[in-house]
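Session log. Operator J.P. requested a structure for one protein chain; no other inputs attached. Running the standard single-chain path with token output.
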Amino acid sequence: MVQRLLAPGEIEALDHTAIPRLLLPQPKALFTARAARLRQLANNEIKGIPVGETLRGYLLLMAALVDAQAAVADSLPAEVFALPPAAAIDLAIEHHMPPLPVNGERPASWRLVFDALLDHLAPLAAGQPQMATVLSELRALDNGQLEGCADAVLAELTDGVHPLHAPFVAAALQLMWTMRSAQLDSRRVQPLITNTLCPVCGAHPVASVIRIGGQSQGYRYLHCSCCSSEWHMVRVKCSCCEGTAKVAYQSLEAADAPTPDDAPVATGKANDPSKVARAETCDECHTYRKIFNQEHDYNVDPLADDLASLAIDVLVGEAGYARASGNPLLWFSAE
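Structure written below.
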């Protein structure tokens, strides 16, 4: 049977109530699967995302950090991850604002999450002097220094944050927001004025992913770098400037032309390693984000796969494109 592709105008006219507009995270499954994916990537087991020996050790360290996220999610009491008052959430939703904003005052309990992460990582420091030093430095931060680092991490600022400290602070914040976002009612959360920011927390996406299965079949979702929520965005639309005229896809193999629709049908050959991970570039704003395709690898994880595919960043960076936003588990110094 031949399935007709929809033109862009027809796509916009679809009944979008049938499309899951927002996919909230399932934290326990998310972090366990992510840690396993990071180890597979580190061991070079994922076709389409080659990993060199230099990156392997870092991916294994991040896998241990994600393991700690999963353990803390199981061990801390539910009140640590309590939502804001219902009236505050209602007001935010009424005005199309994020109900769990990353800017503004944070729940003090996030520091309990941070301490618990360090406790779970402590056994790794035995026999690893650099790791022991980093954990010791993190424990030595006073509340003011820690909150300042958290401010910089959430604002994606390289100034004022140590690149070796930032992934651990980011992991605590990510766990805090992911656990809280999972408690929301996805049907009530409203889209923001701009679709390029997370409707739950207002953070930038780390990457996008084409999902398969059920009503999400064939649709593209942006994956939040902070709360792990995913929200729908029409394919072949820049996730930075929302332009559509000059979007293209770059891969480590042959470059592909853009797919001219957002139809919920699979097209072409499945399980193609060259299409697991690609960079979606825009010649209007000269930025890019990576896009991962579940049709070509069922177990794609946008954050883990983005972290492991630095070769694509080098490729598109040399071509003159700037990364639209960062990965919370990888930080560089301002220099």
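Operator note: The CA atoms of residues 38 and 63 lie 6 Å apart.
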